[in-house]
Specification:
Number of strands: 17
Radius of gyration: 23 Å
Distance between the termini: 85 Å
Oligomer: single chain
Shape: globular
Structural class: alpha/beta
Length: 494
Amino acid sequence: MRAASLFVAVLLYCLATTAQSRQQPNIIFIYADDLGYGETGPYGQQKIKTPHLDRLSAEGIHFNQFYTSTPVCAPARCMLLTGRHGGHSYIRGNYEMGGFADSLEGGQMPLPEGTVTIGHMLQQAGYTTAAIGKWGLGMPFTTGSPNNQGFNYFYGYFDQKQAHNYYPTHLWENGKADSLHNTFIDVHRHTDPQTATDKDFDYFKGKDYAVDEMTKKATQFISSHRNGPFFLYLPYTLPHVSLQVPDSAVQRYIGQFDEKPYYGQQGYAAHKYPLSAYAAMITYLDTQVGIIMQLVARLGLDNNTIILFSSDNGTTFNGGVDPQFFNSTGGLRGLKMDLYEGGIREPLIARWPGKIPAGKTSELPGVQYDIMATLAAIAGIKAPANDGISLLPEMTGKHAQQATRKYIYFEYPEKGGAIAIRMGQWKGIKNGLKKNPGANWELYDLNKDKAEEHDVAGMHADLLKEFDAIVKKEHRNTHLNEWEFINSKMKAAR
């Protein structure tokens, strides 16, 4: 009898172990906001401390030639979630509605009904899905609400304008406002340098820090769905300005930098210690990554959870941020809103113990519209129609299985209209196309000139013709006239 009982126990254990090994992995995608390519330790940052991202990279892989799909917030999020590049995406720019006041909260252009997102894809594969952070793709009363776009749960900001303030009066939980212990702050209020006192800087401080609230909800979601599989999309607002972060975090940096107060002259909230505040915001983001990593380990989910980290676009140019001081672009040209490398090259770090070898780096060019195909491969399912390729073979060291592509395509209708193409070592870019549809290509050899300082377009006429053909192939007309800047004259330009 004892032998029979032992056999049954062993059989049940084996069945449970087999089921666990076959369980689809949990997926956590952490998405920073306006984080520069060179602003974290794995990408060479020297002044700002990011120990948890350092560990994430050391225990996994980071990609050195990874791109966002476009250089501003809302369209980058749309392209990430739908797997479409700038020539195919429904949302291609920051189309704002409403205003900054609570009473005017209107969000951005919503995703339309019928959109297929990563959330939908993973829901259909049996995942419980959550989006916690900044959405920017529609308010709760629209078709773009995350609950209508593949997410079982949402907490955070619907409206990107509201997200300029880290101490809001409310965040949103699904379709209902969650009141916080903060009074309304006009983060775009001007501060007079001649009369400013500590009280004027303190105006921009509150009690409930939005990032802390997001992390609380994220840890609750992970704990509640530990039996998985779950997908957590975690688009934090850090380090997007305003410069607002708890004083305890700023204190860590005060005295390390030669800095002067920022009075709001470039928009957003004033801060007495702008360099320290910005560094603290990135370290605070890193701390949230650490909290998530520690919880996953404590729940015993490490080996069945992949954690990915990236950002929506490059470092900003306003709000008291000093990208030159921090070498935020890692020596690359351009900032947010540029299709030069500094505006679009971003971190991608992935950690999955037992699946992704530790301490690896990759030079494979990748882009955020690859993430849909990549997550489908991780979940073991077929991806919906998209413009990307799966990066999972590269991540897991199965290089012979890694699909390749001839080029990566970028299209951006704001800041005068721009397009760019990355093809092997070559990077072509055109700017100012709304005013000058016949603008010439600039061409850079990124193997020799990653800072895009030496235009060699005059030496490669055949390559430019090939780029023109790519634009003609990849561009689809958009539904907004203001986003439409590629016409027959531009397509025919040389």
